[in-house]
Every structure is written in structure tokens, then in C-alpha cells.
Amino acid sequence: MSSTDDSSLSLEEKQYEFCGHSLKIAMFRGTSLGVSAFVWGPGLVLCRYFEDEKFNFTGKKVLELGSGTGIVGILAVLLGGDVTMTDRAYVLKQIEHNVSANIPVTSRHRSKIRALAWGNDQNNFPTDFDIILGSDIVYNPSQFLRLVMTLLNIANEKTTIYLSSDVKYREGAANFHEEILPTRFNCELIHTSGSNCIYKVTKKVRRDED
Ligand SMILES: C[S@@+](CC[C@H](N)C(=O)[O-])C[C@H]1O[C@@H](n2cnc3c(N)ncnc32)[C@H](O)[C@@H]1O
């Protein structure tokens, strides 16, 4: 744990190794970031999946929802992606800190940080992302429809969405992935690690008469 000039703010830093990169991730404790000030299991499972599957994001336009500390989006930048990391506005300073600490200046032009509150801000974003990432963003049933609305607005039918969720310990997560999301998206379970599941999701093609 290290302190900063602001006595109300203490940073807890942890180090992670993925895909040959050493990531030093700060969590802004002592602020009101709540669940955003942690690196959650589904995020680590997604990072490990990128490593095991030798993901290369070069040339891909990527959006991350609910970035939190930014660990997943930062790794996607280091793996070549052009990545927009998003979260609620009050979380962005933590992401900015971690981007500065982990992404070399020469690659930083491929990282963007923007406020995106689901159900409110999705119309401010382009709809040509190749990939959308979301780790541990399925945990609060009151936000599920907002999340679906956001994915429907931003994804096009060629966008691949990877969602990593804890379906046992997160309220409603199994129902979201098995019942709610499949009404409008094709959902495939592609990896499990304990109760963490990674789903590959694409938007259903709608015929005119639907
Ligand atoms: C449990 S944290 C996961 C953080 C990170 N993705 C990880 O895996 O460590 C969930 C994140 O989703 C964000 N989130 C939750 N509801 C949201 C909403 N309605 N709009 C935008 N972000 C939201 C939170 O601010 C938080 O950063």
C-alpha cells in the first residue's frame, strides 16, 4: 500500500503477469469507487484466456465496458488493439493512472478513456467496433436491461463480444447469460474456470419482419 499527496487517497498496487507483460495495477482505495477499486476474478480469467489463446488485437477496434481498474483493456492495448476503455465518470481517474503506468508512450495513442454509463451514454459512441469486452459487469440485476440496451446500440452484427462473468456468486448472472441476453444475441460458452464463464456473443441478425 502506498500513499499519495491526497491523504484521503491510498493506492493499493498489485502486479500481474499476462502474455509476457508485467502489469502494475493500482486500486484507488479510500475513495468512493466501490467495486471499481478491485481487480475481479472474471477479469483475470479473461486476461489468462487471451494468453492461452494467443490473442492478437492488432488492427482491431475494441471497446471495453465497465473497465474498473482497466486491466483487461490495458492488456488489449499491449496486444496491439486500438482500445476505448469506459466506465462511469468517477472511475476514469483510476483507469487514467493505470494506463499511464502500464502503456508505453509509443502505444498510448491506441488507448482512449471515456465515460459510458449504460442506458445513458451509448448513443455517443460509434458502432463499428470489432470487439467489445466486459469482465465482471454482470452482477447487478437492476442494470441488466441498461447493459443489453448498450450492447444493442453499440454492437453491429459483425462485432464479437466477450463477456467474462461469475455465474455462481454474482446475483442473476446465470439468468442474464442463459435467458436475457439470448433473446437478442447469439451466446456461446467458450471457457470455464471454476464458476467463471467466458461467453462469445454476437448480435442476432434481424430480418425486416422481426
Ligand atoms: C465488478 S467491477 C469489474 C471491473 C473490471 N472489469 C474487472 O473485471 O476487474 C464492475 C464495473 O462495472 C461498472 N458498472 C456497473 N454498472 C455500470 C453502469 N450502469 N454503467 C457503466 N459502468 C457500470 C462499475 O463502475 C465497475 O467498474
Rg for CA atoms: 17 Å
Secondary structural class: alpha/beta
Number of DSSP helical runs: 5
Largest sheet: 7 strands, mixed
Topology-level CATH name: Rossmann fold
Helical content (DSSP H or I, runs of 4+)? 10-25%
pLDDT under 50 segments (min length 5)?
Answer: 1-5
Ligands: S-adenosylmethionine
Please indicate the count of domains.
1
By CATH, the superfamily comes out as Vaccinia Virus protein VP39
Beta strand count:
10
Could you give the order of the helices and strands?
EEEHEHEHEEHEHEE
Summarize it.
The protein has 210 residues and is an alpha/beta fold. Helices cover 24% and strands 31% of the residues. The chain has one domain: Rossmann fold, CATH 3.40.50.
Please describe what this structure looks like.
With 210 residues, the chain is an alpha/beta fold. The protein has a single domain, classed as Vaccinia Virus protein VP39 (Rossmann fold). Helix content is 24%, strand content 31%. The protein has five helices and ten strands, in the order βββαβαβαββαβαββ. The protein has a seven-stranded mixed β-sheet, with helices on both faces. Helix 4 links the parallel strand 7 and strand 8. The chain is globular and about 50 Å long. It binds S-adenosylmethionine (SAM). S-adenosylmethionine binds next to helix 1. S-adenosylmethionine (SAM) binds next to helix 1.
Please give the structural blueprint:
Blueprint: E1 2-3, E2 10-18, E3 21-29, H1 41-52, E4 61-65, H2 71-78, E5 82-87, H3 92-102, E6 111-115, E7 131-135, H4 144-154, E8 160-166, H5 173-180, E9 185-193, E10 196-203
Parallel strand pairs: 4-5, 4-7, 5-6, 7-8
Antiparallel strand pairs: 1-2, 2-3, 8-10, 9-10
